[in-house]
Structure formats: structure tokens, C-alpha cells
Amino acid sequence: KSKIAADFAVGNEPDVIQYFTDANASDVLAADKFVTIDEIKAEYPDYGGDTLPAALEAATNPDGVQRAVPTTGYWEGLYCNKDLFDHFGLELPTDWEKFVTAIVTFRANNIIPIAVSLNNVPHYWIEFLILSSAGKDSYETVPVSAQEDWYKGLHVFKILRDMGAFPTDTDTIDNDYAGELFKNKQAAMQLDGSWYLGGIPDQDNTVLCSFPVIPGGKAEAGFMVGGISSGFYITKKAWKDPDKRDAAVKFIMAHTNSKAVTSYWGGNGQAAAKVEPIDNMSPLGISGLNYSSGATSISSPIDSRISQEAYNTLTAGIVDISAGARTSEDLLNEVLDIDKGH
Question: Which residues pair with residue 17 across a beta bridge?
Fold first, then answer.
């Protein structure tokens, strides 16, 4: 990474490069040597044509400009044991009402509605609840002090706990144990990442579902937490050279079209382009593909925007919020104060 930044600083940059799109690219972006996608599309309208709009937007650089065409990434989503939903005649939790109905029904029938360890890994729930409440723009901007659409999302931890949504021992179990509850069908739902998919034993009756928008939430249905942190760039050096411009564009289009992305992706994580299921893909794998391809927006987790110490304080405070021992507004103010000190 430092060698690449040094090359860009001394005018030794390549014609095309696959590189970070997030804050990790700041040194190289500061050199201002990449062509924007808008500039390229003005001459080559089909550039990045197979790329999913939400994926292209997710690859936007921190300054709000799109320069890179992504290939793959990861997603996070709500895994559901569909056979349990079917057994009790429940619809999948695609909206808040169905979500609450499922929680109440499962709890009444001695099935844990949501497998989660609030003391160990509440991370995915933090992300989705704040994003659901605040909406994409607010979620992607770190507030100066606790704002209502953020702490309202965190307060849902208490609402869910009061409903009996979590394991009774969620304060003491670890994340692995929570995962076993879901895999063994003792729990109906679990929020986790794309990397979790391959380890689920029942690939036939497990599905992914878009996370519901909470009451009064500002998110657009179909929102998703995920990460697309690299992509292909064209440098201004290549763009200004008539002998290289066309070759550079064709090279990147060859590496970012649906066929190329299918081979990069290989059925794991997020495909940034429109792809078909690969051979021998399980029903769960296909469900993950459909879920991630259908996302209306992709937002990276909060830990990519605040200091590690601040994020650790946030995750450590969730048990207290869920139990009503502390308000979400109070926790959020502490987290943001720590972040300001960094």
C-alpha cells in the first residue's frame, strides 16, 4: 500500500489498478490521478454497465465521487429457518408487523425467536437497527452528538428484549453458542454475514430475508449492510494517452462484466454485477444471491467510520440498553465523545 502511494506521488502510477475504495485509499486519492466514472461514461456509455447500481454506489470514494468499478464484496443479512416459519404458518419477517408476529408466536411455542449474544457480538444488530431507523444518509454520517434517529434505533434492543425475542441467557452466551442455537433449529432467526452461509447444515430450508424497517424508520425497504471496499480505476495518465485510453477501458470492462464477476465471486459473498447462480449452488446460496442482488442500498458498518475504542464502547453497552439499565441516548453520547477524542 505504501509503495503504491509512493508510486502515485512521483508520477509512476500504472494505467489501471485494482485498489481500495474506502478510507484506505486516501493517500492515493489525494494525488488526484484517477478519472471519474462520469468522465469515462461520457465517452463510453456502457462502462460499468453490468454493475449493480447499489454496488457502484457502495464503491463511491469517501469524498462522494465515483471512480472505481467493483467486482465483489460481502453482505450481512437476516437468516431465517423457513421450516420453522412454515410449521407455525408464519410469513417471513419482511416488514415490522410480520417480524413482531413471528417473535411473539415463536416465544409462545418455546422457540427462541432470535439467536444472538448481546454481550459478545451484538454488532450486526447495532448496524441494522441504526440504519433501519436513521436511513442511509444519516447512518453513513457520524453525528456530532446523539441524534434521535440513531438512539431510537438502539432503543429497539429494549423493545425486542421485552418481547422475549432473545435467548434468556443472551448476556452470558457467546456468539458461537448463539450460532448453534440457530443451526440446531432451537432459534428461528439470526443476523450474520455472507461468510456464515457455508457453515449452515440445512442449506435447503434456510433463507435470507431483507431486514424490516422499524416503525418510523427512515430507511428504504431493501436496505443492506455490506462492504465493497475495492474496485478498478483508470489513471489520468492512461486516459490522456490516446493509445492507452481505449485499451484501459476495454481491460476494465472485461474484468467487471457479469461473466468475469461470476468467476471472481464464485458463489461467496456479494457479486457486484448481475450474475446467475453458479452450478451446484444450494437453495440457501441462491437465496443469498437474490437477497444481495436485490438490495436497494449497501452501507458499510459503523466501525469503518468511528475509532475502535468508541466502537468497543458501543458494543459493550448493548446489554445495559436492552435491560433498561441505561438509555441509548446516554450510551451514544459517551461513544461520540470518545470518538471526538481520536
Answer: 233
| pLDDT category of residue 1 using cuts at 50, 70 and 90 | confident
Judge residue 300's burial from the number of C-beta atoms within 10 Å of its C-beta, 0-12 exposed, 13-18 middle, 19 or more buried: buried
Asked if residue 302 lies in contact with residue 85, where contact means CB atoms within 8 angstroms, the answer is no
- CATH superfamily, domain 2-70+228-274, is Periplasmic binding protein-like II (3.40.190.10)
* Cα separation, 304 vs 311, whole angstroms: 9
pLDDT at 237: 97
DSSP 91-148: PP-SSHHHHHHHHHHHHHTT-EEE---TTT--HHHHHHHHHHHHHHHHHTS--SS--H
pLDDT at 2: 85
CATH, domain 76-222+301-340, list 3.40.190.10, 3.30.450.40, 3.40.50.11440, 3.20.20.60: 3.40.190.10
Q: What is the pLDDT of residues 25-77, one digit of tens each?
A: 998 999 999 999 999 999 999 999 999 999 999 999 999 999 999 999 999 99
